[in-house]
Amino acid sequence: MEMKTKLILVGGGFLILAFAFFIFNGSFTGNVVTEVSIDSFIDCLNDKQVIMYGFTNHPSVDAQLRLFGAYVSNLTIIDCHIMPESCKGVIIFPSWRIENRIISSGLSLGVLSDLSGCKL
């Protein structure tokens, strides 16, 4: 294999591992996330009108939703299959609307906390 190909494969593998750690770790801050803090966190997100855009049976959306555990039903989510008119301009799933800005990516709880100003 050429050196360039090896570098691309190693770099790509590193990025995939870093992304997986970032998504499944929840945050880099070392916060202990409890059921009470998740419930309060979702209340804050709703108070600040933070919205997640996605649709059912999409692996990335499902992974994002698992971060919220049993409290996912309290999260404000727009299903773009059911309400496509509410998803204009959203092309990557999941996406988040925070302070009228669209963030086209799955987010760890820590990053979502930082961007929204809601504490975990």
- Any idea how many domains? 1
Helix content: 40-55%
Assign the CATH superfamily: Glutaredoxin
Looking at CATH, which topology would you report?
Glutaredoxin
Order of helices and strands: HHEHEEEH
pLDDT averaged residue by residue: 82
Please report which band the strand proportion falls in: under 5%, 5-15%, 15-25%, 25-35%, 35-45% or over 45%.
5-15%
- State the secondary-structure class: alpha+beta
Runs in which pLDDT lies below 50 for 5 or more consecutive residues are: 10-15, 17-23, 26-31
Q: Biggest β-sheet, characterized?
A: 4 strands, mixed
What does this structure look like?
With 120 residues, this protein is of the alpha+beta class. The protein has one domain: Glutaredoxin (3-Layer(aba) Sandwich). 43% of the residues lie in helices and 12% in strands. The protein is built from four helices and four strands. The chain is globular and about 50 Å long.
Question: Which short descriptors sum up this protein?
Answer:
120 residues, alpha+beta, Glutaredoxin, 4 strands, 43% helix, globular
Reconstruct the topology from this structure.
Layout: H1 3-25, H2 35-47, E1 51-54, H3 59-66, E2 77-79, E3 95-98, E4 101-103, H4 109-116
Parallel strand pairs: 1-2
Antiparallel strand pairs: 1-3, 3-4
Structure described in brief:
By secondary structure, the protein is α+β, with helices and mostly antiparallel strands. Helix content is 43%, strand content 12%. The chain has one domain: Glutaredoxin.
